[in-house]
Amino acid sequence: MACNRMRCGPWLLLQASMLSNANAWSPKPPMYNIQKGDGANVSDGKKHVSLYSKDGPVEVLIGQSSLDMIHKDPNIVWLVEYYDQSCPHCWYFSGLYPTVAKAIKSPTVRVGAFNCIDPVNEDVCKDVMFFPQLFSHNLKAVGDPKHKINVHKGNDIDKSLTPKDIAEKLSQDSNGRVKILHPHVFPKPTTGKLKLVDSRGPPGKDGWTDEGIGSVASRFHDAHIGMCSLLMNGYTSSKKYEAALDVVEFIGRAYGKDEEKVFADLLTKLKATPAMEAKVFKSTMHDWMHQFSSKWVFCKTETCAVWELFHSVSALIAIHYAPIKVSEALPKFRFMVDNFMDCEVCRKHFITSYDACLFGRCDVLTNKDPDLQAKALVMWIWRTHNAVNQRVISESPPKHGKAIDRRWPAYAACPGCWQVDVVNGKPAELQTYKGQKNNDQPVYAVFDEETVFGFILKVYLGQDGDGRLRLFEEIPSLSWPPRIVSLTGSSQFIMSSVCAIAGVAALFAVWRTSHKLRKMSALADEQEFLEASQVVE
Ligand SMILES: Cc1cc2nc3c(=O)[nH]c(=O)nc-3n(C[C@H](O)[C@H](O)[C@H](O)COP(=O)(O)OP(=O)(O)OC[C@H]3O[C@@H](n4cnc5c(N)ncnc54)[C@H](O)[C@@H]3O)c2cc1C
Predict the structure, then answer these.
(1) Do 278 and 331 fall within a single domain?
(2) pTM for this entry
């Protein structure tokens, strides 16, 4: 097959996706495409992404017409979830909510959900700041107004109620209007312990098997998308205007040497309409983002792209590329999460750990030497991410097979990053940090942090040894597509792999090359092809 860009773009992508592990563990549940004729109130002919399937127990609510339907008959009790399809705690809740629905649904009790990231739901969701949120309508009596339903034990957002707890609470609060009609759907309490890797112990089964396609260019590209999606999701009203400008200005300075013009252009557009409304802000960001393709290349989740942003910025400061002092950057990470992270639990965990000096946060500025401060910044954000990795895997451990290890980097990716003694079975020691207020999320010394620091610079910037090279600046010079002559047997296999890799490399260079090429329709098609492979039709 001749490797012609117009003809085999999708094919290249297919080959490339086969290079990654289709069975790799991910906390992300399936996403469904809902369209006209699927039973939900879809009238616009577009596809709407949903965490719930079209014929499942949770009704897919779409747009104003669905809200009107809820308000239409005050005799019907409605339970309505508002979620963001990219928020990890919405993913976890999407595993529980259908069971609540199955237990209580009846002709007079209906259960549904709005995906607030879908632009069609923008007005419907405008009063909801954090996700997931659950509300009832007409719960206690006919015409009873909208009430928030707490899905946690007390006020502790780390302790989720079970579907049975939620259904029983609704039933108690509803004066008999909600009945548990199908109690058999509640899962039996599990007795055995969750299968988790010992966080003090040697490396377990690799939980990062898709890392191969994470090049410097692809991570860097996704970091830009991470900034945009963080801001767009969190910009709930014009009150966020100043904070958004602050973030764009900060990231613009971090990436500034090469991208001064693109960021200046964005700032000019944003400043043209002071205190812009959420809709205008989102469309401005969207237009800006589109110039370099708005889809992820390496990441499969929106929060991954936010991490790529944080790691790349801290690493750029560490190599003096970004002219930003650590004393400015450190609180700016807190500021970005506090103002714009719409996953309520993620936000709370990050802010609480920051304020409690966990993971070495309060060590960062202790050192007088700016280089050591910058290194400490990189390592703090790395430890913070690793603590979240462990939390994520404990929230949704794999249902089958061995426990997997989400400590990063995996042993296979960087054997030297691990302490030899720990690899050989000696339990790692507890690490504590300056000013640390609690030990709720213990850190064990399983890694050789010097090597990890070097590994981070290499993975995120392509920085090797003492050099100052940033690989992503080199990649656009790759020639693509490669020349293919007539092929048979194994040479065909090798060349198709080369062709696939070249295709991916070219995609990974989208960010850099897009300055020159602007938006190429062939690439846009390929991106859609990639995205479609992650959605269940
Ligand atoms: C600020 C923030 C707070 C969050 N808090 C929570 C939370 O409290 N609970 C929750 O369930 N989810 C939380 N998340 C989401 C969670 O971290 C993951 O992003 C999400 O589960 C998707 O995981 P993923 O498989 O895409 O990989 P991600 O964890 O998003 O990782 C993306 C990539 O980053 C690289 N990476 C992984 N670990 C590190 C590291 N330590 N240092 C450097 N690079 C690394 C890897 O290449 C990986 O593929 C948070 C996200 C963010 C941005």
Answers:
(1) yes
(2) 0.83
